[in-house]
Amino acid sequence: MGAYILRRLALIIPTLIGIMLINFTLVQFVPGGPIEQVIARIEGQGDVFQGISGAGAERVENIGGGSEKYMGARGLPPEFIEELEREFGFDKPPVQRFLSMLWNYARFDFGESYFRSISVVDLVLEKMPVSISLGLWSTLIAYLVSIPLGIRKAVKDGSKFDTWTSGMIIVGYAIPGFLFAILLLVLFAGGSYFQWFPLRGLTSDNFDQLSPLGKVADYFWHIALPVLASTISAFATLTLLTKNSFLDEIKKQYVMTARAKGLTERKVLYGHVFRNAMLIVIAGFPAVFVSVFFGGSLIIETIFSLDGLGRLGFEAAVSRDYPVIFGTLYVFGLIGLVMGLISDLMYVWIDPRIDFETRET
């Protein structure tokens, strides 16, 4: 198993380089880069810097010795454009910039945001608690509820319990996450009905003055609705996946043999069927975690006014803040690849008969 882990770890490096190379190449052909954003700001042609902090805006305005005299201008001095290129590192060839970026990222040096006057690492760490809260709790709740429910549905296949729970699951799967989030806000967060949960933020304003138990309660009070909204689609998928997987295993010959030997139904289900049926469910764990952690966070964070990595990535893409874009892409890609390796290790943990040493990679 050790040799397989080493091979997988070695494959992470070229995979990450490939991901970064593809995205870096695509960015070269996307109009409206950082320099164009600054020029648009100077000429008063847009509000692309609306979300930039005061320190970041001051940094931009200080480029070229102050940009106020260029406001409304149709042409800018070449010297000013050259200074912008030096400031953003665009005075170097793309290949040199890409290799320099890889070398820095290998040392986890992601540089500083173009427009926020803060390092990318500090910026990500600042937003990380929100995304970790959404991703971790949503995935955990989805698995804790979906697996027992899926097993129960498989055992009671065709019964009234299976029918009405399937109806609820289909309805939950059909409702878009953002629509369900809005519904939760309207019903329980001061909309037209009840005001049981806070409307925004991860904690209350007086969080620091609360007792340890009060801090825990306040945290879960704030995160309850966002987690529920982000869990709904994963919950439906996992439940049906677990049920179908168990149904396939229950119909196999070894289950009939185990029952013929006089084993109890619980022994058959959890001693024999569970190990085989859970393989496909565990295989989907990285996809579920990554999709909740990265994919669905933007809409949920926006609706519930949570300042997490989803909004950070969106704002960075809009403002063409390349250090933030590529830095977060590198970290997210690394996490996704590591999660794939963890999934394989969980395969072996669930079923020791699986041997990845003999598998060619």
Secondary-structure topology with pairs:
Blueprint: H1 2-28, H2 34-42, H3 54-62, H4 78-88, H5 94-106, H6 120-155, H7 160-174, H8 177-188, H9 212-250, H10 253-260, H11 265-283, H12 285-295, H13 297-303, H14 309-319, H15 322-350
Uncertain parts: 45-74
The coarse overall form would be globular
Note the beta-strand portion.
under 5%
Q: Helix count? A: 15
- From the coordinates shown, what is the CATH architecture of the largest domain? Orthogonal Bundle
State the fourth-level CATH superfamily of the largest domain: MetI-like
Keywords: Cell inner membrane, Cell membrane, Membrane, Transmembrane, Transmembrane helix, Transport
Organism: Qingshengfaniella alkalisoli
Main location: membrane
Transmembrane segments: 9-30, 130-149, 170-194, 219-242, 277-304, 324-350
Structure description:
The protein has helices at residues 2-28, 34-42, 54-62, 78-88, 94-106, 120-155, 160-174, 177-188, 212-250, 253-260, 265-283, 285-295, 297-303, 309-319, 322-350. The chain has 361 residues and is an all-alpha fold. It is globular. Mean pLDDT is 77; it is low at 45-74. It folds into 2 domains: 34-118, no CATH class; 121-358, MetI-like (MetI-like fold). Pfam families: BPD_transp_1. Its main location: membrane. Keywords: Cell inner membrane, Cell membrane, Membrane, Transmembrane, Transmembrane helix, Transport.
